[in-house]
Design goal:
Blueprint: H1 7-27, H2 33-51, H3 54-62, H4 68-115, H5 123-129
Helix pairs in contact: 1-2, 3-4
Length: 130
């Protein structure tokens, strides 16, 4: 049975759909533009591989890979690992900022209580009631 569409077109259309979804998420402010760059690069690579699959064949032969499709998988796993590392670095930075903000808030609450020890005003009550 003959396929309706060659696999190159299927891959290229998939890349275009991914790029469209990324643009839509950025436009709706669901994804920050800073993070969308990674995904747009993935979509561009998928489109390029879809239209020009022989590129990976040539690169694979140049690098000594006897079965070029495995090159795509190896590079994909490598990029996923780099993305995970970048996400962990970002999360660590955010955790550090949250910890410092929590410490600053505790210092400010302590200073506020020192200035008005006679009042029974608790900052936590005001935050919880808001």
């Amino acid at each position: 049975m003959k396929p309706l569409m060659p696999y190159q077109w299927t891959t290229a259309i998939l890349g275009v759909l991914i790029a469209g979804a990324i643009f839509l998420l950025v436009r709706r402010d669901s994804l920050r533009s800073r993070y969308s760059v990674w995904w747009l690069l993935v979509a561009i690579v998928i489109v390029i591989v879809g239209f020009f699959p022989e590129i990976f064949n040539r690169i694979g032969l140049y690098l000594g890979v006897h079965y070029p499709p495995i090159l795509i998988m190896t590079l994909s796993v490598g990029f996923v690992l780099v993305k995970i590392l970048a996400m962990d670095l970002e999360r660590s930075l955010q955790e550090r900022k949250i910890r410092r903000l929590t410490q600053r808030l505790a210092i400010l609450e302590g200073l506020l209580q020192e200035r008005s020890p006679d009042e029974k005003h608790q900052p936590d009550d005001a935050i919880n009631n808001a």
